[in-house]
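Hi V.,

You were right to ask for the full record rather than a summary. Here it is.
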Amino acid sequence: MTPCHKRKTGGFPILNSGENGAVRPPALDTTVTALVHAYLETIDAEAPGFVRGLYLVGSVALGDLQPRESDIDFVAVSEIRPDAETVDVLQRVHTQLHIRHPRPHFDGVYVTYEDLDRDPILCPPVQTAHEGRVEPGDFEPNPVTWHTLARHGVTVRGADPAQLNVWTDCAVLNEWTLANLDSYWRPWLQQFARLMSVEGVAALGSWAPAWGVLGVSRLHYTLSTGEITSKSGAGHYALETFPTRWHKIIQECLRIRGGRDEPSVYRTPFARRRDACGYMDMVINHAHALHQGQ
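Predicted structure:
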C-alpha cells in the first residue's frame, strides 16, 4: 500500500485533526443519535449479531452535517456476507427506518472485515442502502469511503478504525479521483451546461450549482493534499487556492450549502449557472494538470 503523504495545502486546515495528527471525532447531532439508535434497535431485533461494526462516514464524520440536505452515511461490518434471507431482513429494516425517519436518509454499505483489508474496487458486489431501498451495487465501496473511514470514521459499534487496519493507498485514491472527474463530473457538467434539457433547466435552481462546484473542489483537494474533506471544507480550500475571479461562485455555493437565509449574490440564475460551468471546467482541467505535475 502506498502511504499518504500530506502535500502543500495553501494553509487550509485538515478537518478534525488534533494534536500529533490525531483525529477528533465530531460531537453527534441529536438527529444523528436518534436515527442511529433506531437503526441498531431494529437491526438487532431482526438479525441479532449480524452487524458487528458500525461506522459513520461522509458529512457526519467530516464535521459538515447540514440538516436540510445531508445524508447520514454509514459502513456496516459483519463477519460474513448476508445470504438471501438476511438481505430480505435488511430491506425490511431500512423500509421501517425510512418510514419512521424519512429524513435525513440513512445510506451506506454492508461489508465484511475481509473487505476492509483490500482495495474496495476488488470487493464483490455488496448490499447498499439508499433512501430506504437495499440492493447490490447501487453505490459501490470506493477508495474515498475507505480513506474517510480510516482517517475520520466515527465508531458507533466495534473496534476503532485504526485497529481494523482499513486499506488505504494514495496512488489508487488519486487514480480513482481522476477517473471520477472524467466518468462522472465531465458528463454531469455537459448535461448541466445544456439549457434546453431537463438537467439544464434544473441547473437554474440552487442545488445543482452547489453540488457541482463543491463536488469538483473536493476532488481537487484530495489530489492536492492526499486527504479527504467535506463539501464546505472544499469550498474554503477553493477560496484559498483559486483566483479571485472564481470567489463569487464559490461563496455563493457555500451560502447554499450552509442553508443561510440570505439573498443570492447573483442577479439572475443564468449568470450563476454560467459561472458554475466555467468554474467546474477550470477545476477539472487544473486537477489533471496538477496530477501530471506531481
